[in-house]
Amino acid sequence: MSLLRAIAAIALFVSAMVCAAQAQADEDTLRGIIAKFALSKNYDQTEEIIVELGATGDPAVARVLNALSEGNLASRKSDKAVFIVREAGGKVALLDPLTGENVGEEAAGAMDKVKVKNSLRRLIRDVLAGLTLGSPDPQVRLNAALTMFANPDVSAIESLDAAIAEEQVASVKLAMQQARAASILISDADEAEKAEAIDLVAMRGDRDALSLLIGFSVRAEGELKEAALAAIADIESRLAVWDAAQNVWYGISLGSVLLLAAIGLAITFGVMGVINMAHGEMVMLGAYTTFTVQAVIRASFPDLFDWSLVIALPLAFLVAGTVGFLIERGVIRFLYGRPLETLLATWGVSLVLQQTVRSIYGPTNREVGNPSWMSGSFDLGQLAITWNRLWIVVFAIGVFVLLLYVFNRTSWGLHMRAVTQNRRMASSMGIRTPWVDAFTFALGSGIAGIAGVALSQVDNVSPDLGQSYIIDSFMVVVFGGVGNLWGTLVGALSLGIVNKFLEPYAGAVLGKILVLVLIILFIQKRPRGLFALRGRAVET
Amino acid sequence: MITGRFFANGVTPRVLITMAVLIALAALVPILHLAVPRGSAFHVPAYAVALFGKYLCYALLALALDLVWGYCGILSLGHGAFFALGGYAMGMYLMRQIGSRGVYGNPILPDFMVFLNWKELPWYWYGFDQFWFAMLMVLAVPGLLAFVFGWFAFRSRVTGVYLSIITQALTYALLLAFFRNDMGFGGNNGLTDFKDILGFSVQAGSTRAALFSASAIALSLGVLFVALVTGSKYGKLMVAVRDAESRTRFIGWRPENIKLFAFTASAMMAGIAGALYVPQVGIINPGEFAPANSIEVVVWTAVGGRATIVGPIVGALLINGAKSWFTAALPEIWLFALGGIFIATTLFLPRGIVGTLDDWRAGRKAKSAARIAEEGDRGEIDPSQEQHVVAGPKERAAVLDGRRGGPEPQPRRGGPEPQPAE
Fold it and tell me: What is the pLDDT of residues A341-381, one digit of tens each?
């Protein structure tokens, strides 16, 4: 990152030097032209001066032209010298029209503003765009080309032609050619040139190009119209691919949320064979821990706000994990061998937890803020990706990898797997299964707690938060199978993606119903889920 | 015993007493409500009639769940769905009875359809203006759903917690579906604003009293039905499936058929309960499908006592009475209390109130019998036989282990744990 930044800084510095050298060479000429503004009698003369300034091709005129367009260019009545003016408490500050340096001040009455009107402003914009096409910074040139593509103008073709001839950077050149093509399409150029332009515009393949071509196809006739329609169809099919990619991304995002919510459930179900109906409430506890941490930070250490989630993560793990441990020791261990009754007892626990939170924090939604690094979004191709979703995906992957490590590389994980596969045998080998149970339950609950931290960023934090995730989490576990973390991953991602793909066709609610029905049907085929435990796992 | 010769197996004196009490209630409450003057101490006010009528419907629902859970070992977390479907069938009949007295005065379309700009009645609303058809649907819709669902689920041997979870998914899917306006069942608001049932105003005191009696009679018939089923050979098979499904299969029975019968019959009972419930509360909306409701039904049954016939009724009445009292007096505390009941029942009263009482009485009887004779024939003592049948898994495990004659390293555990072939 810092290396890139250094390179960029050097490049900027070099280009600034080059720029300065060029400007120096022409400065006297420029000043001569600028001085004419003071003598301009009417708009036509002003227009000539602007064109003349533009013809010099020197980016340094941007300052004076911008000032003119904003109505800040004025000449001193006494000596007809031209300055950029800035109001400063009854007087005006005088700035040098080329360098922008402060060169003194005058009474407001001593200055004559150079008059400007909208057609002149438009002219200035075009001239400036032409100038920026000649800028030594490729990024400036690219932006200019993109601006000109969005606002095609027949008169810009010439300056674009010149710029294309000079251009060395391939991507910028392409953008310029496309901008030129966009202008060609509205000009009265011949058919062959227009056909070529259609191809160029179609290459962009985004929504801007699509609307441009649609506008063109309405006006065009004959072969051109056909070519435009073909290009439109092509772009639309490409956009459909992007839409699919968008759905996949949304699906992955939903899937990672499901993964976070379900993975703890899958662990406890796999190891202990009990369904923890209070799992959703662990998620809720994690979210409320985040809320509390943020409330404390807001009140006492406002500078730490960006760190609030990092601070909340271990706390949420501890809070939810401790509650889970207490539930296991206090309730569940007396109910082993009675999975259905465990389900009922944990449901009771979930009611108590919900009501406790409701009594402490109130029944309404609580607001959990996004730290600065989780707000906003960026574009990837045609996709708009929000940072909070991206971070949740990253976080879910991190949690998953961590759990994989714990399961496959630590002795505790070994014990858990042993108990999952054959409890009696594990016990005979000297594994203290009751403690494995207790800590597995605490681990599963703790994971749910940190899932709550993540969910607090995308969902309302209310006492019912857990309820809305519990059934989906069950579906993931039932679909993916127990005893294998990969099952949960595949289950969560496929449910997320299927859900998002059904949504555009069936609507959100019907899509969800369809998914539920599909799972109910799937269970008939594989009653133990996708990744079932192999071996002698036979029900009594 | 003598009673065994007079009545079918399963119709024990206790069942007869329960039925007698219910029928007496069915006769007495309308009289006390309608004939006794308002000021009298024996007058039953209108709200009490509606409230207890509602409780009786809940009791029937709990009894239906007891048939599948207590006797057949299928923990359904979706019985609220069958209840609500029965309720919707009744609600559709009541909606059609409104006729042109609705807000929009449309003689055919219910108000919400006019509001949504529907032009004609959807096909699935045809026939619901006939009472007999609606009653048929009250039985057929939940029964058919349970049959199809059970057919798939039991055949592919989905059992235990997996089955519980997918029954919950079933009711959740229905909840989402019925919330949609496009379904044509009134969406969020459900069906309400009923006027008539069979030509009598649903608001009238006499109609309310009649509905109460109908609920009480339906419950007593439900009790009789469950008693007959569980006392029959089929009932024995259900218990066998509950206690050792694989063994039952190995002996040559088809557990899936037995379960399917219990599940479908139970769903129909739940449907009847829902149908009686709707005119008494005056509304049916998708909230009835909420998974939480179905789980609450399970706790009624658990508190009263699984695999006892009276237990679910006692449980439903007790918990709902407590709910009414708590939500009026201490609304904050109710969820704590309900959650506490869930935990306490599973931990300390695994056999429920009635089951625990039975155990206690059986224990005393067994003691006195042991004093009289060294060797008591267990088959002759009714309650202890019942105890043998309904013993919890722990006791069963102990019996099994005892038979095998080897001490176990630790208690048997459930779930997807591999078991050595027994």
Answer: 888 899 999 999 999 999 999 888 888 888 888 888 887 77
**Of B263, B291, B319, at which residue does a domain stop?**
B291
- Residue pair A320/A288 in contact by the 8 Å Cβ criterion: no
Distance CA A107, CA A84 (A): 14
Contacts of B157 (CB under 8 A, 6+ apart): A527, A539, B256
SS3 call for A326? helix
Residue B243 lies in a domain: yes
Q: What is the pLDDT of residue A266?
A: 87
Mean pLDDT of all residues in chain B? 84
Q: Which CATH number fits domain A243-376+385-525: 1.20.81, 1.10.3470, 2.40.50, 3.40.50?
A: 1.10.3470
Give the list of residues 6+ apart from residue B340 with CB closer than 8 angstroms, or none. A348, A352
Cβ-nearest to B75 among A277, A340, A521: A340
- Inter-chain touch A352–B409, beta carbons under 8 Å: no
pLDDT of residue A418: 87
> Which tens digits make up the pLDDT trace of B61-100?
999 999 999 999 999 999 999 999 999 999 999 998 888 8
Mean pLDDT of B31-44: 84
The pLDDT of residue B6 is above 70 = no
Closest Cβ opposite residue B169 in set A352, A519, A527: A519
Same domain, B202 and B77: yes
Is residue B191 classed as helix, strand or coil in its secondary structure? strand
Chain A residue closest in CA terms to B339: A348
Q: Is residue B255 part of a domain?
A: yes
Pair B280, B366 in one domain: no
Nearest CA distance, B221 vs chain A (angstrom): 29
A346, A351, A536: which to substitute to probe chain B, counting the most B Cβ within 10 Å?
A351
Shortest distance between the Cα of B330 and any Cα of chain A, in A, equals 13
% of chain B at pLDDT higher than 70? 86
**How many angstroms away from the CA of B143 is the closest CA of chain A?**
18
Task: Test A516 with B335 for CB contact under 8 angstroms.
Answer: no
**CB within 8 A of A352, min separation 6: which ones?**
B335, B336, B339, B340, B343
State the nearest Cα–Cα gap between B232 and chain A, in angstroms.
Answer: 25
**Cβ distance of B158 and A524 shorter than 8 Å:** yes
Tell me whether residue B101 is in a domain. Answer: yes
| Domain extents in chain A | 2-121, 137-220, 243-376+385-525
Residues B244 and B386 in one domain: no
- pLDDT less than 70: residues of chain A: 1-26, 57-59, 89-90, 130, 155, 483, 533-540
Residue whose tokens read 């419930």: B277
Contacts of A519 in chain B (CB under 8 A): 166, 169
| Structural domains of chain B, count | 2
Residue at B349 is within a domain: no
Residue A39: partners with Cβ closer than 8 Å, 6 or more residues away: A45, A80
Between CA B101 and CA B107 the distance in angstroms is 8
Query: Do B150 and B29 fall into the same domain?
Result: yes
Search chain B and give the residue with CA nearest A476.
Answer: B165
What interface predicted TM-score (ipTM) does this complex get? Answer: 0.80
Nearest CA in chain B to A333: B347
pTM of the model: 0.76
State the CB neighbour count (10 A cutoff) for residue A267.
28
Range of the domain at B148: 2-291
Q: How far apart are the first and last CA of chain B?
A: 36
8 A C-beta contact, residue A39 and residue A80: yes
Picking from B291, B311, B336, the residue at the C-terminal end of a domain is: B291
What confidence category does residue B51 fall into, taking pLDDT thresholds of 50, 70 and 90? Answer: very high
| Residues in A touching B161 (Cβ below 8 Å) | 269, 273-275, 339-340, 343
